[in-house]
Fold each of these.
Amino acid sequence: MNTTTTPAKTIGEFDKELDQRHMRGQWQYDVQLEAIRKDGPLPAGVPFLWDWNTVQSTLNELSALMTESKTARRNVSFINPGPMVTGTSHTLLMGMQLVLPGEVAWAHRHSINALRFVVDGSPDLYTVVDGEKCAMETNDLVLTPAYSWHDHHNESASPRIWIDILDVPVFGFLRQFFFETYGETVQPLRAHPGDNVSLRSSLLRPAWEAQSADRIACRYPWRDVQESLRLHATSQGSPYDGIILHYAHPITGGSTMPTLDCHVQSLHPGFEGKEHRHTSSAVYYVVEGEGTTIVGDKELNWKAKDSFVVPNWMWHRHINRSESSEAILFSCTDAPLLNKLRMYREEPENSFNARRYPTVPADLQSNSETSDKPHSHQT
Ligand SMILES: [Fe+2]
Ligand SMILES: [Fe+2]
């Protein structure tokens, strides 16, 4: 006796019925699972470069169109051309902002973390963060952490431009936006210089106060970065990233902000970095030089003031095309967020932090001596 019966419907028809019941079968994810099994997470978005000439002419066009801005928020965001990505990467939003002479960008605060890297600055351009003035000279980095009040002022005679980088897509996905305007254009400054937050983030801190790592207004002046890069110029550096320095949080020494980490890297003339990949995505700004970053099978050819994005989990390598000049890149990643969630991975392992501190010269000497000699200081 034949016991088989013809099914009343195909699985495809059943899938459609499930849709109507607001359900989905696990088998519908099998193609994706197969891809993930072979190579790990699927990258979000695509590698892409925003050419400075296009960005500059866009900002100029915008300032001609919008001669007055009540909020001085002439900002254009860089949106990844890939599908399903609302920011520059799936977690980071990068853009550039132009502020005309005499303008003030209104005081406000929000739950998102933000930072500024200055493209065209001046001693007369500054951001007030929680009542403290932070100057914005060219290539300075200024942090406005979550919930810190901030307003921007251009008291110079020329239009000024900076890069904004924020963790907006993450906060959007998690539905964590809070936003508040101060109610007046400008927030009050701290009355006493001794109350400035920067005095709480230096090596000498008031011992009578409880220490806090939150809402630390911080400026990393470019002149300090340049000096550090100069001192490290003869170091071995990273085979992937050259001489790469971390903008450490001034109190914790850890990530620049809870969700964002910043680095600056110098690639020696002719540098050809090794290929690596990590689960974090990164946005880059070219401070100086000319080179190529190969991401997957795409070549991003960059020059000074260009910006580009390297999506998560894509193989990439940096090349300095010049045989005579350094190339310097500023970058921001979402790695701190992934680290906190124990999600961060890289290939090969230990692309970062693999080398030990330089050896203490006296330790080298004492190790080479055979002896039962006491390790005392001989005078
Ligand atoms: Fe803001
Ligand atoms: Fe990398």
Amino acid sequence: MAPSSHFSFATRAQSLEQSDIRAVTQRVEEVGGINLGQGICDLPTPEPLRAGAQRAIADDESIYSHYAGIEPLRRAILEKEQAYNEVPATSPEEVVVGVGSTGVFVTAAMSLLEAGDEVVLFEPFYGYHRNILELTGATVRSVPLGGPGSTFDPEAVEAAITDDAKVIVVNTPANPSGKVWTREELSDLLDLMERHDLVAITDEIYEYMLYDGAQHVSLASLPGAYDRTITLSGFSKTYNVTGWRLGYGVAPAPLAERMGLMNDLLYICAPRPLQHAALAAFEDLSDDYFEQLRDDYAERRVLLCETLEAIGFEVPRPEGAYYALADFSPLAATRDGFADDAAACETLVQEAKIASVTGRSFYEDPADGRRQLRFCFAKELPVLRQACDQLRGAFG
Ligand SMILES: Cc1ncc(COP(=O)(O)O)c(C=O)c1O
């Protein structure tokens, strides 16, 4: 076999590299520490989903499904989107079940974008969004949005829009900042989308993780928005099944059909037995489940944010999702090892055995994230408590 240096990789593959997140995960494992970096939650999968998966495998639900998902699941998702998200979809034909919400994001991006098109992405962004959008050949225009304390500025978007702009990506509640878009902000965004004829892809994967009275509003629920919006969500975060790779999108039928065909081409279908298992999430879990989820994360959020503040971070309180994007400037003023985000990340691994994610991972210009680290609080409470003890022990 030819040495790997002889391979001539496609341009799209050349820039791929192990993300900072994976690298720090490896580092913290080496020192036997706790990983607050990667957004994997280690909480248990609800029993009805586990039982459903076992049942589906025992029942031999093992062959390909319809490329857009089994009908009962698409119907259940439709009903959930109507009730919780107030999205005015009317038929399972408008629902695509895919390989995680990421898989559906890929089908949406591949169905809409190509070289020459432009797509607006807000910063700080979720890296997969940016990298997948780039894979389509489209040009990504990053627009600063900020975190929980910042308000969407239509003029900043307006300045980034050219005649080639086609798509805008919204993530609410947002990873990494914890910002939750308000109805007013979404309404201003819709106005802009209508004037520039843009389609929105909204990633709402953290739609149930909300704090301090924040409300989740789906862009597609606003009058006139559904016709130009793809709403994405999934099972990974709400039901602690990140490895199941099951997510979905809701969009007007012609768009959903195109995404379904793209899903067929790229993946054929989402894992069939797990589609049956996911039905249990709708059939067997009541609203109490979401209330409990919210309360559990609210407790973890306070624990982590107060610990970070106590040791010298500035922590804009996340309104949603399960991350804190914290600024270590005050700590840097009093200690060595915090020259920039990479140094700070390494210092936390060495001195507290805690993994975080460098701020640069969320910005086009790495300098914009040089004072920030992201921490994930989707951890079992005893593990999070231990992590907080380690942080206080090292820096308190
Ligand atoms: C904003 C956002 N979207 C999507 C995902 C991945 O979702 P899925 O597992 O459904 O592909 C993540 C995971 O970290 C995320 O933070």
